[in-house]
């Protein structure tokens, strides 16, 4: 997926969905475009591309400095963040290493 700014920069007026973009020498099929302002981390000044985590790990290694997700409702945001932290702690056999941040 591409954010709207990057899709506009690369494809202009053409439809990006169904086309391919490359990161390095790895091609990716564009399956969607994220509207401006849809990031949960607040306003974005950079162009963003979203790729599957396994693809990221294969290309850049296993270190990830942030994850972005969504909850089914506003009421479930904190519960969803708490669950995500628990999963990370369990998978990495560590505690107090992960921080959840909710930006409105």
UniProtKB/TrEMBL annotation:
Residue ranges of domain MacB-like periplasmic core in the record: 1-84
Origin superkingdom: Bacteria
Name of the protein this chain belongs to: MacB-like core domain-containing protein
InterPro entries noted in UniProt: MacB_PCD (IPR025857)
Any single Pfam family the record assigns to this protein: MacB_PCD
Organism encoding this protein: Desulfoscipio geothermicus DSM 3669
């Amino acid at each position: 997926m591409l954010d709207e700014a990057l899709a506009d920069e690369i494809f202009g007026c053409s439809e990006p969905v169904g086309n391919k973009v490359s990161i390095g020498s790895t091609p990716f099929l564009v399956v969607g475009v994220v509207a401006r302002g849809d990031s949960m981390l607040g306003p974005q000044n950079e162009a963003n591309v979203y790729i599957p985590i396994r693809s990221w790990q294969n290309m850049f290694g296993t270190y990830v400095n942030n994850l972005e997700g969504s909850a089914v409702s506003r009421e479930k945001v904190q519960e969803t963040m708490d669950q995500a932290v628990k999963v990370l702690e369990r998978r990495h056999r560590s505690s107090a290493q992960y921080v959840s941040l909710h930006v409105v």
